[in-house]
Design goal:
Length: 108
């Protein structure tokens, strides 16, 4: 049976001090005991990290598109070509990052 710990040495020490069976496994065969420990990575278990990132990229894309539409509708504002280029670069970078996050990883 695998023992699951967080991705920190402090959690490993706490788990080892509280688990008598794991202590005995380390006395008997330390290599096998280390192999029986499973490290929990927060990027794999915490879905809120990806939700927040996807939400922020989506809001950035929508905000840039909305801003360009509002600026183009105003008659008094003359859109500068550099401004359009900068907004296009930012939004295309955000779209690329969003696509990279949402694409399935090859090892899963």
């Amino acid at each position: 049976m695998k023992t699951t710990i967080n991705n920190s040495f402090e959690d490993f020490k706490q788990t080892l001090s509280n688990n008598n069976k794991l202590q005995q496994e380390f006395r008997d065969n330390p290599i096998q005991a280390v192999n029986s420990i499973e490290v929990k990575n927060p990027k794999e278990t915490d879905t809120w990290i990806y939700r927040i990132i996807v939400l922020m990229f989506g809001l950035a894309i929508i905000g840039i598109i909305t801003g360009l539409i509002v600026l183009s509708l105003h008659e008094n504002v003359k859109l500068n070509e550099q401004l359009i280029t900068i907004f296009t670069a930012i939004s295309s970078g955000a779209i690329g990052a969003l696509a990279g996050l949402l694409a399935p990883s090859p090892n899963k």
